[in-house]
Amino acid sequence: MTEAFLTSADAPTDVPLKRRLKRAERARQVKALSLVLPLLAFLLFTFLGPIAGMLWHAVDDWEVRQVLPHTVAALAGWDGKDLPDEKAYAALADDILAARAAGTLAIAAKRLNYAVNGFRTILTSTARNLKAPPEPGTARETLGKINPAWRERGTWAAIKGASGPVTSFYLLAALDLTRNVDGAIVAAPPDQAIYRDVFVRTFTISLSVTVLCLILGFPVAYLLATLPAGQSNLLMIFVLLPFWTSLLVRTCAWIVLLQSNGVVNDSLRFLGIIDAPMRLIYNRFGVYVAMTHVLLPFMILPLYSSMKAISPAYMRAAASLGAPPLPAFLRIYLPQTLPGVAAGSLLVFILALGYYITPALVGGGADQMMSYFIALYTTETANWGLASALGALLLVATLLLGVVYGKLVQGQQVTGGMKN
Amino acid sequence: MLKLKMALGFAATLTAGVALATVAQARDLTVVSWGGAYQDAQKKVYFEPFKKAAGIPMNDESWDGGIGVLRAKVQGGAATWDVVQVESEELAVGCDEGLFEKIDYTKIGGEAAYLPPSVNPCGVGAIVYDFVLGYDKDKLKDAPKGWADFFDTKKYPGKRSLRQGPKTTLEIALIADGVPPADVYKILATDEGVDRAFKKLDTIKGDLVWWKAGAQPPQLLASGEVAMTSVYNGRIDTANKNEKKNFGMVWDGALYTLDSWVILKGSPNKDAAYKFLDFAGKAENQAKLSENIAYGTSNKDAAALIQPAVLKDLPTAPDNMKNAVEINVAFWLENIDRLTERFNKWAAK
Description:
The structure holds two protein chains of two kinds. Chain A has helices at residues 2-9, 17-59, 63-67, 69-75, 86-102, 105-115, 119-129, 139-146, 153-161, 169-174, 195-226, 229-243, 247-258, 263-270, 284-308, 313-320, 325-353, 357-362, 370-380, 384-412, and strands at residues 177-179, 185-187. Chain A is mainly α.
């Protein structure tokens, strides 16, 4: 800063001051930018790039295009009303033979199997039984004989629907929607329509955990902020200690505490409060307990820092002007903690949205959150299109909520005249 | 402007660093397996002796499976693994996607040395293992006979545990419902069969707890959380041996499958990898593995070298194979996504 000032002070005096000031300002901006450049580059590489890749995966439809190119070309002009013409059948036979020789048929089979269950078998059995290219003009008959599925419009509609280069298939599936034979968007079959419920479940759990953390964290943060330093430091260590313990260890500790023959149930039985063990784990209750415990420090710390900044003089002033304790708290103290409440709630909510290990270990079948499904499709079944689509929708929903939340909080911000 | 230069220099270093990291580097042979008690046994009988015998440095790592992991490693270039132990579905899908090297059997003792099911163009069989019904003998005086008893909460009160997801769960439900093991997949291939399996699961839904990792079922049994569970047979065996538990298992209606060794495509240590596979494929070494952990192996001559007392507790013992079902890879490749959705729909009801 001083450097910039010196150089501009040494500059010839015929340059108007305004321009010199501008120049100095620009030099400062360049310097500031150059300081954040490494971080920007890092973010671009490790964060924005992968997210863009994920979004692309959600709509990318390359498999069928690559493996069955002639069929895709032959179906380009097909209206989907009746079965495609002989040309398409011949193209498919050629593609299948070529793909079989190249060993790539399974890639297309996997993609088409998402659209029509059983397509993997249709393709592999056709490839097995198709010994040589059919005689000109007999392709339709030959393929139909090998597998009757080739006489059905739906089979061809699936290939056309997967022709790419981009597809709405995965995004629709993530919203429990699908396209029927005629290409119209319809609801997915009830057995497979689960993702809307999972979205609702994910947001419900995250919101409930946020509210629980706020209810439990607010008094603790207040105590920390108002106690003398010696005592509050000791308490702070109690808050931070679990924060430094591994997430997995804390989750497993809850299993030990809450299981049927666990510490909690045994104590309650010993005291004669219950006869049979209560189900405290492998259900929603267990998820709430464990997640709230794990995320509590993220709520307490921002609250504490905002409360620490509130001068006790305000409450004393309110009392001296005759305000009873409750209205003084509600009208003087609470509004000043709102930035902390906002920061803590947002932090806990966003972290909770992505929770995977904790619900997986202490939840039941009805408590698995979206990240469980994203992980399942990413690693186990390698359906990266659906995994990306679910991830993309979760990202968009979170961003939307973030924007709405930002607007709400902005309207509420009260700084108490402390900063400006 | 010194700061700017430093910043730019730092940014350049970072970019260069990232670029460098993606260039494959010469490294030691890396073998990847399933961790836990199983990998400890492999260390003892495969990894350490191989290092000594062949004079080849190697590291071992562990993973939790998932074809997506291998796909990301191979397609991302610079895979840091050479030899990986995979489940049968991973073997099939990875082979289709070209993620694995084609196995040259002449370098590992020839195809004739191995049991036919363990010979695959992309991988060579490592172990045979079962999902069995496991229970605690100290808690259940009257031993359960099979999956039908698993669903009988009157005779055997208490909670049950199965692996989360449709795979193994639906087969077990059908066997419990009286479907002969040989017909399980024929029935499951029909919509009525799937309905039937879920209907059977409905009868004990309130008593079901789901496990996700192989280490969980023995813990659930030990803590008394569940009365019975599906479990990998080797885990019961090690819990009894190493932790002095008194767990029992039922082989009748067990589901068995086979894990294989694969070499990741483009591995820079292919020669060393083959030497390792050759070592791990020898009958005398495989016999030692079975004696350390109760899994069956892939070499034809290994069984002859194992003590009879050990042999009778292996998945490959004829008595244990009698009423066992091989998990059908083709069926699950075709139906896993659809049935996973259906399973979760059912679980959330």
